[in-house]
Amino acid sequence: MKRYEQVVQTLAQRIEQGVYRVGDRLPSIRALCREQGVSVSTAQEAYRRLEEAGFAEARPRSGYYVLPRTTPSVLPKVSRPAQRPLDVSQWDQVLELVRGTPGEDEMLMLGRGIPDLGAATLRPLQRLLATLHRRVDARGLNYDSLAGSRELRQQVARQATTSGCLLHPDDVLITTGCQEALSLSLRTLTAPGEVVAVDSPSFYGTMQILKAQGLKALEIPTDPQIGISLEALELALEQWPVRAIQVTPTCNNPLGYTMPEPRKQALVALAQRFDVAIIEDDIYGDLAFTTPRPRTIKSFDDEGRVLLCSSFSKTLVPGLRVGWMAPGRYRDQAMHMKYVSTGASATLPQQAVAEFIAHGYYERHLHEMNRQYQRHRDILLGWVERYFPAGTGVSYPQGGFLLWLELPGGIDCVRLNDRLARERLHIAPGSLFSASGKYRHCLRLNYAAPLTASIEAAVQRVGETVMAMQEEQAALVS
Amino acid sequence: MKRYEQVVQTLAQRIEQGVYRVGDRLPSIRALCREQGVSVSTAQEAYRRLEEAGFAEARPRSGYYVLPRTTPSVLPKVSRPAQRPLDVSQWDQVLELVRGTPGEDEMLMLGRGIPDLGAATLRPLQRLLATLHRRVDARGLNYDSLAGSRELRQQVARQATTSGCLLHPDDVLITTGCQEALSLSLRTLTAPGEVVAVDSPSFYGTMQILKAQGLKALEIPTDPQIGISLEALELALEQWPVRAIQVTPTCNNPLGYTMPEPRKQALVALAQRFDVAIIEDDIYGDLAFTTPRPRTIKSFDDEGRVLLCSSFSKTLVPGLRVGWMAPGRYRDQAMHMKYVSTGASATLPQQAVAEFIAHGYYERHLHEMNRQYQRHRDILLGWVERYFPAGTGVSYPQGGFLLWLELPGGIDCVRLNDRLARERLHIAPGSLFSASGKYRHCLRLNYAAPLTASIEAAVQRVGETVMAMQEEQAALVS
């Protein structure tokens, strides 16, 4: 056995024994040389082989990380929604998910879209907020200007260059969270009874806007790796009077895919051909695992027909409620909608976020978070593989901190939640993400915060409960 | 001449010579005794006579204050709006008023609805905010619960008892400013094309909601002392399919009146008879000059048909965007609308306001502000009398910090604003407060912040400009 093969074997054994677990960083080349008494080239060769064998992956400027033992063998299926305009339901389930603060009733919410709020790189934000609130007297708590603070709009415009967007600060409108941006967009573009095409599954917050405004959702088949089917969308645009296309093309919620750039470009062309507006939800876009981050659809739009919506709720903290939109040619109407919706947004949080970006803290925070989230994705994939029944479909997120599971054998995740409630656990059932409650056999999990032993135990319990339900079903059938 | 008569004469002379000016506090009884070498009963008698003669007024537990020389002789007329459902216009003028932060472009905004942000009694709020932001780490910046923080809802419910309202914390929904509360109310109650009855003149923010939602405004004649005409409203309810009645019955914006309680009660009875909901904007209600503050319409409602809307933007500071509503029987729909509009409201500002109220700071602040605003009202009334043409109608606010002027001779306040812009002055033209731009000959002034010499000079310039425009008109006619 060659020297490097011995090293490979040692490392592989340690991984199998759980000394290094999924997502852990393996020893550096230097450390490995020291520990095993081998040369740098031998250590390098060992890692290359380990990588080839699918045990580990190299991450630029960081090192080698333990991969889930197999890449997920089953992806969720391409969705096949109804493809006719539907009224939106499911509010009760959404309400259950968002009613309380997590921890308030000691329910462990495994499915909510909340980032890791314990990150060290968020500390400068707290410092900035505390300093601002100490420094600024009540006069600084006047109404801000309606479009939002100029400093923040400037920073947002600068930051948008990383997604290929050239925005002027005046193109940006600060909102009270991304939810308001999406809401204003839909109110700007549509009237009750009209039809909006959406990717499917689709963020429940947007679906509920459709419901509240009496709009109809036209759910378009969506591929878990490349996003909304342009072919199906084209057919739908020919068939139905679609007023707007609503998509989350980058680090999609809940599926985690990023649409390939050529498809983003083709989507803009399609919208042009049918003269329809696009609402682009980019709230997770800055959390992509690649550098530079993927381009937005907006970056391919030279007609101002894309309304780009985002916020700092997933990249920083949700409780500041600082969001923004770049509404393109619809700016004037969006501004009116913003005025009647909430007036100017809160003053000091805007300043704090602007300074956080200006000082470079935002970039550093993103860098750390994206490494963490990628690591966590791999760990959670490992757990799902270990604890969920064979045949469970799993997404392979390109960014963000949300995993989508498709359970085999028609397990109902609303019923699953009822069972989990006894153990104070809660997952986001897939039915939230459909106008008519499809995807009941799917669920969303969050891997943002540190994946502690108690989270692992909770994931394991979910998996066990699913398997118990499968067995009960099987018993009923036989 | 009796001793007390000499004292009266001395004080009257000083007032006429401007030693004491309108709104100033006169010497205390004790100080007057010392200064004039008279007994307490003589000093008391002197003040009684001064009061009778209309020079001063006594304020409980405070002292004697100089009154404007005559009470305003001309009140604004009872409004006579169109009384048929109208589409709302005037957005451009509203945008001009709210686009920028005051001071940003060094324009002196004399007409905006902004409280005195320099008040010493606001300092504990800043302290609380600074402490909270220092103490709470990023985990405290998670999404709050959708209905809002329980502590704040508790405080709001307790505070509401001062207006005769018995609310449970669960009856309260925290919003992002009163504007969101009003917006959610209208979205909860109406669909595009429907008719909403409003007092007239009416807050432009509400009018613009009607515009944004494609609603029609049915403007009801309104008396500058007792509010919306119930007689005219009854006729309107018989004639038109009114979906909601929107009023600001306490410390009305812009007219300053408070509807007498029997009329509030009668309004509820009318709404019951026609089975229509009432949206009650109470944003200035806590700023009434009487103790206890007037009752809300909501306090007479035992069917849950009144949606009470308010915020801390006028009583504390606007830039926190903390508002609330008590939507009565419409709570579930309002909650859904809240979710789709902005999700949960920002977390820490709610906590800060809750603690501010709990510690008794709010009550103290209101007490101080209401004394200040009442004093300022009298001063501004004096200036209007001095600097504006004879025949100018002036409101007599019962609370809040806004004065309404009705100019004689058909002066156009939009044109007036154009002229004032050259001197970096801006008033709120009356046309903002009407669906179709009526009240162009009216304007709103703010007397919240200290009425400095430069504010006096500005008010004088507005009056002079009005008179110059009158003369030009007269020259054209002759």
Automatic annotation (TrEMBL), chains A, B:
<comment type="similarity">
    <text>In the C-terminal section; belongs to the class-I pyridoxal-phosphate-dependent aminotransferase family.</text>
</comment>
<keyword id="KW-0238">DNA-binding</keyword>
<keyword id="KW-0805">Transcription regulation</keyword>
<dbReference type="Pfam" id="PF00392">
    <property type="entry name" value="GntR"/>
</dbReference>
<dbReference type="InterPro" id="IPR015424">
    <property type="entry name" value="PyrdxlP-dep_Trfase"/>
</dbReference>
<dbReference type="InterPro" id="IPR015421">
    <property type="entry name" value="PyrdxlP-dep_Trfase_major"/>
</dbReference>
<dbReference type="InterPro" id="IPR000524">
    <property type="entry name" value="Tscrpt_reg_HTH_GntR"/>
</dbReference>
<keyword id="KW-0808">Transferase</keyword>
<dbReference type="InterPro" id="IPR004839">
    <property type="entry name" value="Aminotransferase_I/II_large"/>
</dbReference>
<dbReference type="InterPro" id="IPR036390">
    <property type="entry name" value="WH_DNA-bd_sf"/>
</dbReference>
<protein>
    <submittedName>
        <fullName>PLP-dependent aminotransferase family protein</fullName>
    </submittedName>
</protein>
<dbReference type="GO" id="GO:0008483">
    <property type="term" value="F:transaminase activity"/>
</dbReference>
<dbReference type="InterPro" id="IPR015422">
    <property type="entry name" value="PyrdxlP-dep_Trfase_small"/>
</dbReference>
<dbReference type="Pfam" id="PF00155">
    <property type="entry name" value="Aminotran_1_2"/>
</dbReference>
<keyword id="KW-0032">Aminotransferase</keyword>
<keyword id="KW-0663">Pyridoxal phosphate</keyword>
<keyword id="KW-0804">Transcription</keyword>
<dbReference type="InterPro" id="IPR051446">
    <property type="entry name" value="HTH_trans_reg/aminotransferase"/>
</dbReference>
<feature type="domain" description="HTH gntR-type">
    <location>
        <begin position="1"/>
        <end position="69"/>
    </location>
</feature>
<dbReference type="InterPro" id="IPR036388">
    <property type="entry name" value="WH-like_DNA-bd_sf"/>
</dbReference>
